[in-house]
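Contributing: when you submit paired examples, paste them exactly as shown. First protein:
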Amino acid sequence: MNESTLMLSSREGDLVKVTLLPEELRTPEDCYDLRNEMIAASTGCRAVLIDFANVTFMSSVGLLSFLGLRRAVAERDVRIIFFNLSDNLDAMLTLCRLISDSPHSKAPFETAKDEAAAVAQAS
């Protein structure tokens, strides 16, 4: 595990699990630092599983953290799966078309209910 005030990460084979630590992803400094930490943690993986259990609020700058990660791993076809999303975050990400529950709609991020479902989905 790494030492950070923004996230914890662990690796199991080619899966990386990121646990977000702040309740709010609001400031540009924190969001850009988070993006950089997630990119560094994702080196050599095929899926990044991101746990939102601690997050209650995310600003538009927070969205950029995840879009930056998406851009950084796009050429390697790395899947990014969000799990433990609050209802409010789920609604916001759906409205922004960053996630979708429809198999006919392509979105940059996938979602799962919990960690076990995210691991199963990534396998």
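Second protein:
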Amino acid sequence: MTPKRIQFFIALVFFILGGWAAFFPQHVIDTTFLPEYREGGRILPFAVACFGAQALLSGLFAAFSRFSSLTFLVYGIALLPFFGFNYYFTFHDPVFTSIGLLDAVGNVIMLALCYVGWKKCKAAETGADL
């Protein structure tokens, strides 16, 4: 798998989850938030849709930028705090349902892709063959 294809798979995670949030914010709220957090007036669907739009934008950057080994490495490191966020708001101080862990699944997929992309780019940059 080429680094460019890996980038597209990273982007795909953003497009799927971000598109869901951007175009179906109430569905995201109803399935991923605990009942006591589903009431927020008009601001909650708006905020979720904005979150989705930001994810779609991130997907565009992931799809159309040129990643180096450093980009994959930094991207992977930047994902790590999100695992703490997912854990905290699912298990410690619950806001999300178990369906909300789809975000964590997406992060695991992207982290694995970052590792593979880093290895592929590193090999190409050093002239090694994988």
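If you have annotations for the second protein, write them as plain sentences, like these:
The mean pLDDT is 96.
Residues 3-126 form one domain.
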